[in-house]
């Protein structure tokens, strides 16, 4: 409880890097106030945990998480601490430990929801377009985490990629309702950009190439074509519908009206 009071009273600075970054906000689920960059640094995605296979699903199920755009993120230190506790349990203690952790995670998640709701309501009353803000923030969080993972995969620094024109172009069409295929396309586009800017002697693998078939150019030009200069920032709902349609068109065979691409 003390932690909650402290979080409410402190300034808007990120508690880790102390920057007065405008993205710094309270993540009640993790009981921290931090900027997006530090959040990305200090969390780990479920996808990565599953890929590495070092942490059991039981432990993941015991911890609270956030899920920007459907990408589940855990506080990395929480995961490590829980794993350590779990490893030291006697077999007969496991069931009660798991039960207790579930209860705590439930309580934290429930509590966070109430606090976030109250905060959002307050923002809304202050005239902030809170729905749009949340959508945009969530896209930035997911994109940030995927870029970090790309850097780990390619063993290079990806922090500057956010300044690249490819990133900026895609950022205009970021959509919290993107299907996974769109995030994959975005990832492959960023991977290509990363390989190019860092002069890496690596190429795309077979899985990556799959997402190039319906590549960025089509997506971007048709976006420009159908919505003109309207970006995600000004037209979240219309771009959402367009991206949805395109998502199913890209996978072929939904029987919907085909999207016309400009050459
Ligand atoms: Zn920070």
TrEMBL record:
Annotated spans, Disordered: 225-263
Protein name: 10135_t:CDS:1
Source organism per UniProt: Ambispora leptoticha
């Amino acid at each position: 409880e003390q932690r909650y009071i402290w979080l409410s009273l402190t300034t808007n600075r990120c508690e880790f890097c102390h920057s007065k970054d405008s993205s710094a906000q309270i993540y009640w689920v993790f009981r921290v106030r931090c900027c997006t960059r530090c959040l990305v640094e200090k969390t780990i995605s479920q996808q990565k945990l599953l890929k590495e296979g070092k942490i059991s699903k039981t432990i993941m199920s015991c911890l609270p998480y956030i899920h920007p755009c459907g990408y589940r993120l855990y506080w990395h230190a929480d995961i490590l601490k829980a794993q350590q506790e779990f490893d030291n349990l006697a077999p007969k203690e496991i069931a009660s430990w798991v039960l207790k952790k579930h209860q705590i995670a439930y309580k934290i998640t429930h509590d966070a929801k109430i606090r976030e709701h109250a905060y959002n309501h307050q923002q809304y009353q202050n005239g902030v377009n809170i729905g749009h803000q949340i959508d945009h923030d969530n896209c930035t969080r997911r994109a940030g985490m995927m870029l970090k993972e790309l850097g780990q995969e390619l063993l290079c620094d990806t922090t500057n990629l956010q300044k690249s024109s490819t990133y900026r172009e895609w950022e205009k069409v970021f959509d919290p309702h993107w299907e996974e295929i769109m995030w994959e396309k975005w990832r492959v586009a960023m991977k290509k950009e990363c390989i190019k800017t860092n002069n890496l002697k690596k190429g795309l693998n077979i899985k990556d190439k799959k997402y190039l078939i319906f590549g960025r150019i089509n997506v971007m030009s048709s976006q420009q074509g159908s919505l003109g200069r309207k970006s995600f920032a000004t037209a979240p709902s219309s771009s959402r519908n367009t991206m949805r349609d395109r998502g199913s068109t890209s996978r072929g065979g939904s029987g919907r009206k085909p999207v016309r691409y400009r050459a």
